[in-house]
Amino acid sequence: MKTIRHGKNAKQGFEKVKKLDAEQNKLVWLTPAPANNTWTIAVRQDIAEKNKLSSLADLSRYLKEGGTFKLAASAEFIERADALPAFEKPMILP
User: Fold this and answer.
1) Which parts of the sequence belong to the ABC-type glycine betaine transport system substrate-binding domain (predicted)?
2) 87, 78 in Cβ contact below 8 A?
3) For the segment 63-87, what is each residue's pLDDT rounded down to a tens digit?
4) Which residues contact 43 (CB under 8 A, 6 or more apart)?
C-alpha cells in the first residue's frame, strides 16, 4: 500500500483520491455536493451483479428476501440517529 502525503486542502485531497481510485479501482468520483455527507455503503461487484444491487431500494429488497449483509462501520455511524438507525427504518418512496 502506498503512503500518501497530504496537507489539509480538501479540494487537493479530493482530486488526489479521485485520481487514485480511477487508476487503481476503476471507480469514478462525481462532483461533490455542497453538503457534507460522507457516509457510504459499498458492495463487491460480483455480489452486486449476482443480486442486481444498484440502489438502496435494491439492497432493501435483497435483505427482505433473506439476503445477508455484513456492515463494517464506525461507532459514530452505528450510534448517530441520522445514520444506521435511520437507514434501518422503512424507506418511504414517492
Assistant:
1) 14-85
2) no
3) 889 998 888 888 998 999 988 888 8
4) 53, 59
Residues 27-62 have pLDDT tens digits of 888 887 777 667 788 888 899 999 999 888 898 899
Residue type, 19: K
CATH code of the domain covering residue 48:
3.40.190.120
Does residue 55 belong to any structural domain of this protein? yes
Burial of 53 (0-12, 13-18, 19+ CB in 10 A): buried
Confidence at 88, pLDDT banded by 50, 70, 90: confident
* CA dist 15 → 10, 46, 47, 82 (Å): 9, 27, 28, 28
Single-letter amino acid, residue 58: D
Neighbours of 79 (CB within 10 A): 11
